[in-house]
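Structure tokens please, single chain.
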Amino acid sequence: MAFRAYDDDLRRFTEEFIRFDTTGGNEAAAQEWFQSRLADLGFETYRWEADAERLATHPSFPDDPAEIETTDRPSVAGVLEFGDPDAGPTLVLNGHADVVPADEGVWSADPFEPTWSESGAELTARGAVDMKTGVGVCVFAALAVTDAVAESETAVDGRLVVECVAGEEEGGIGAAAAALDSPYPFERDAAIVAEPTELAPVIATEGCLMKRLELTGRSAHAARRWRGVDVLDLFETIRDRFLALETERGERLDHPRYERFDVPLPLTIGVVEAGSWASTVPAALIAECRFGVAPGESVDAVEAEYEAALREVVEADEWLSAHPPRFERFSIQFEPAETDPDAAVVGAVQSAMRAHGLDATDPLGETYGADNRHYVAAGIPTVVFGPGTIDQAHFPDETLVWEDALVAGEVVVDAAIGYLSSGA
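Here you go.
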């Protein structure tokens, strides 16, 4: 049975999944439902929870286990076997259950109630793009592979694993745990992560460095502001130097998968808090910064570059020299990742894309990070491929063109059959 025959099932599945609010570590109820659905559909199921002390040894996560929230955050998976499963490869189809928060005040409707366009061609909800639809695509693609193998006279050996992990938005808690300590009694040979890629094959993803900058100035009455030292002025000087370095680094980057980006290694200062009163010169500032890390770079090396840029500013400023800023890591660090374009799973995805009329000439790089990095670090070649666009991810009124989900499913089915049949 072809993938499109599961259209109604996929719609219902995705609707149910979306109705679970899986923000802020609240994946447990959704994952219980997901595991039950996998079992009902004939999968052998697995379940694991990450260990905070184990994750604290991983470079992505804080060194203090108390800062890593893993309690009651299960990851689940379902396995389908073909022929002699140990004689063939194992392909993982991966997605995540968690979603980012949704401010209902800027949504047109309840973000956790799936809303279809009048024609049924578009789905709007938190998670429609990132990435509960993609997870559903993986489930029904695996079932469609089973149908195709049963209808074919071609012998296929191997396994498909459909994986729904917790905490991707917080550094990849479930995927990192699975990469460090496999929850399965078999090896994993390749993976497809169904993040939104606009139906393009992505084999390189950036990392990111998260740093918190703290500045101290001198307060003064607004009527005598020249007697103070305004931290906003200090911050603007530092920000200008950081943006100049962002440009320098982008111009230095020689990577064919990032040529399409005007800003290939983006810096974002997403949080700035300064001052305490409108009539007082602000004397304290905290800024939280995210710095892009290219494939082939290390987070440590990028950190050293930005720290050197900050020192330049500090050494050139009398006040900053006497009151040096604090500039420390916080939160989660993402390592970059890249899969060899000649890997069998990349070829399988490209062949399947061509079979469905998609441009599969050159795999791409992306400026975001994803769970693929954990599998690549574990020696598992991984392609990121899925429906929807990153331009809609984390946005209000997050919307997916449903046809993309159906095409993605067709491609994943053919890619999985091609990969398993290759004996890779």
